[in-house]
Design brief:
- It is globular and about 40 Å long.
- Helices cover 25% and strands 42% of the residues.
- Strand 5 (68-74) and strand 6 form a beta hairpin.
- Strands 1-2-3-4 form a four-stranded antiparallel β-sheet.
- The protein has two helices and eight strands, in the order H-H-E-E-E-E-E-E-E-E.
- It starts with a helix and ends in a 6-residue tail after the last strand.
- The chain is α+β, with helices and mostly antiparallel strands.
Length: 118
């Protein structure tokens, strides 16, 4: 009976350590949490809001809400894809890329539209 109890405790400990190690790996939401906020476009000063909450994303250009759904996230390359429906009714993908400075202290965002315009 003592061996059975030890085996059970070891199993619980291994499960605990596995769960803890999963928490330390990058999660899908890491980049989304980083980029969530209000940004100003360099070219024309438009305020761009990216709001990530409850596993959903909202995108606003000024006061205009752009309907998007979350696409593929690539934490290694610091990109997040947003699936959009274009004015033509066709689907498109917009990619937001997080670009860090050399010291890795601050970053800016690069938005690439479905047609390659940045």
């Amino acid at each position: 009976m003592n061996k059975l109890l030890w085996c059970a405790l070891i199993g619980v400990a291994l499960a605990f350590f596995a769960a803890c190690s999963e928490k330390t790996t990058p999660q899908t939401s890491d980049i989304l949490n980083d980029i969530s906020g209000v940004w100003r476009a360099r070219n024309d000063g438009t305020m761009v809001s990216i709001i990530y909450a409850e596993k959903k994303v909202r995108l606003l250009f000024g006061d205009n809400s752009i309907p998007v759904s979350l696409g593929e996230i690539d934490n290694a390359n610091k990109t997040a894809n947003m699936n959009v429906t274009l004015a033509t009714g066709k689907p498109g993908v917009w990619t937001i890329r997080q670009i860090w400075d050399k010291e890795h202290k601050s970053f800016h965002l690069q938005l690439t539209l479905h047609d390659g315009i940045q």
